[in-house]
Amino acid sequence: MATRGRGTGPEFMAESEVSDAALSMIELGEVAAPEAIDSRNLPDRLRRGLLALIVVLSGLLGTAGSAPRVPGLGEPLWTGAASWEEVTLGSQILFIRESDGTGIVGRDARTGELRWRLGIEARGRVFIEDLGVGIVAVYSQREPITVAQELTLTIVADATGAVLATPTGFTIGWIHSGQKLLVFSQREAGTDDCPVGEELCTDAFAVDVGLEGAETWRMRLPNGAQVLASSVDGDIASFATVSREGEVRQYAADTGAVTGTMDLSGADPVVQGLVLDDAFVVVRRGEHHVEMTAYRKATPIRLWTVTVPARLRPTDDTGSSWANDCGQLLCLAADGTVLLVDRSTGQIRAELGDDVFPAMINGVLLATETPGTTGPWGVRLLDQADGRTVASYPRSAIMPWFDADGRALLTQQGKDRTAFIVHGGARVLGSVTGTDLHCQARGTLLACVDLTGLLRVWHLSA
Fold it and tell me: What does the domain layout of the chain look like in residue ranges?
């Protein structure tokens, strides 16, 4: 059943250009047309508050040339069957939803040996999230899916499959690693105890997984407010809510107690907030502009403001504005234009242009370029100090790689093979047969599922 990773490997070609960096591209055979790009490589995963999510895209490679061949990754450690997007690679266990949708199985990530099976009652979508410290969250959602539909959440010990807790909602993160989780649940108006006329009713509560999921506190959050979490050493120390009117409330994650409030009201409504180590940032949108303002965290003292023109596209009704924490910089998007802003001074360091989406990936600032009239998909490596493009990887995509020691993993595809490249000198780890793969890596393991349901797991010599 295993598909061999050896055979006629793709060809490797060095290419120079952007800045002084040496760029590398991979020739993987005859190239398909750009319209063959499959958007299903965008995996479904839950948003945790407004924490930035890693966006995973797929790309097609189209270079020509002749050079030394790149070896394959070799024989997989093991193979199996799985649904295309219902596999999650943990540090020790590979979690797979069974094909009939009635259960989750845990297999040894290195050998494929069956360790446990967990029955689930789900007739819709299932999400599996590794929470670290030997615990996994299994979310199930019945169809038809609505914006605020309750999620059935099962907290599971990954080594044994034992159920530790079954709260209703979605996890934001650990308050105390391995012991207490911060969970949020949302309900639509007119359901349960959510009054008619409300936008959404949101509860925050803490679940002690060591006490069979007992709630240690629960509270109702302000109507329509966004939730932002702040972590220290991986654990959530506090969280905050921000309303469209600019009212900010801060809470202690351990108790749920309100620890402070701020009035950041302005002429325009708040569309997003960010919690930084030393500042609170809000994004406001007016009729003709988008504004990002930083305030001192403990007080409403304004530190700086950046204002950029709003530029609606013909297909937009209300426009699109968002902000991300991009390391030493803040990323601000206003209707397609993305700016890199110095987080200390508010000075604009770089403008990335349309259809470019920057994100911090394992401590590396990368920007994905989406298909458009300007060219094919690709990935840029950006300097965190000034946003300068350090290297460019045309027709490439970012792949999830956990426990990666500050590295990022890129993929490049051809007609019938996919190659994997470690950021930094474009070092090629190898290639495998198949395209349109749903892949993820953790540490030295790589797991991929193709559209036929073939699951393969390899060792990465990274």
Answer: 17-459
120 vs 114: CA distance, rounded Å: 17
Radius of gyration of the chain (CA): 23
Here the tokens at position 95 are 């979690």
d(CA 358, CA 379): 9
**Residue with the two structure tokens 């029955």:** 119
- The Cα 195–Cα 110 span in angstroms is 50
Q: In whole angstroms, give the CA distance from residue 113 to residue 180.
A: 30
Tokens found for residue 449: 């599922």
Model-wide pTM > 0.90: no
Q: How far apart are CA 325 and CA 331, in angstroms?
A: 6
- Both structure tokens of 358: 């920057």
Q: Which segments within 111-151 are labelled E, that is strand?
A: 114-119, 125-132, 135-141
pLDDT attached to residue 375:
56
- Whole-angstrom distance, CA of residue 419 vs CA of residue 432: 6
Sign (positive or negative) of CA dihedral 309, 315, 321, 324? negative
* 152-202 tens-digit pLDDT: 788 999 999 999 998 888 888 899 888 899 998 887 766 667 766 666 788
Instruction: Decide if pLDDT at 38 tops 70.
Output: no
Strand order in the sheet with 409-413: 397-399, 409-413, 417-422, 427-433
The values of phi and psi at residue 312, to 5°, are -65, 140
Topology classification of domain 17-459: Methylamine Dehydrogenase; Chain H (2.130.10)
Determine whether 373 is exposed, middle or buried from the number of CB atoms within 10 Å of its CB (0-12, 13-18, 19+): exposed
User: Cα(423)–Cα(427) distance, rounded to whole angstroms?
Assistant: 7
Query: Do residues 21 and 390 make contact, with C-beta atoms less than 8 angstroms apart?
Result: yes
| Beta-bridge mates of residue 78 | 457
